Amino acid sequence: DSGVTQTPKHLITATGQRVTLRCSPRSGDLSVYWYQQSLDQGLQFLIQYYNGEERAKGNILERFSAQQFPDLHSELNLSSLELGDSALYFCASSVPLNTEAFFGQGTRLTVV
Amino acid sequence: GDSVTQMEGPVTLSEEAFLTINCTYTATGYPSLFWYVQYPGEGLQLLLKATKADDKGSNKGFEATYRKETTSFHLEKGSVQVSDSAVYFCALRDTGNQFYFGTGTSLTVIP
Description:
The structure holds two protein chains of two kinds. Chain A is mainly beta. In chain A, 0% of the residues lie in helices and 54% in strands. Chain A is globular and about 40 Å long. The termini of chain B are far apart. In chain B, 40% of the residues are buried. The chains are: A mainly beta, B mainly beta. Chains A and B meet through strand 4, strand 5, strand 9 and strand 10 of A and strand 5, strand 6 and strand 11 of B.
């Protein structure tokens, strides 16, 4: 158990809908990262937050947004969903030192 | 910008064979380097890490050495087992605390 909790584990929704994925980082970790993993794209970095503020943006679509709350949990919002958004979405957290990131088990999103 | 390039898969080996998965990186400064493993249906788990040049990370029979002169961090294991079948990711953390991952290498070990 990495200490990073993601909910829900599975999500099935229709095209055009909006969903929210939740991540609780390890206790004490200030940084949260979101990644998308699809079969043909590998692990794509979406966005990073540090202590409530956006720190870096990767290949995140305009239909996607995220935030980190004062209690450090984070949410990734995906709207106007398309079939191609079906993927595994991972959250990771780390401390601001030269160490590894810890990954959650992921949320498998299926858009039908 | 910073990046990681790792060997394309998939890789199929017989049990007890020697494993090498190549990884090279591009980075400014002195990044930390990692190997993560992902078993089917699971998240990424840290396998080993090295935080400075010439460090050797090791875990579960796997090892990798941080080679600054060749900007490499190749993963090796002397004798693979069926239970090692997974996807392996090379990654770096730069001085700005950003992580960069390779595309992953799928390993299948057959009995």
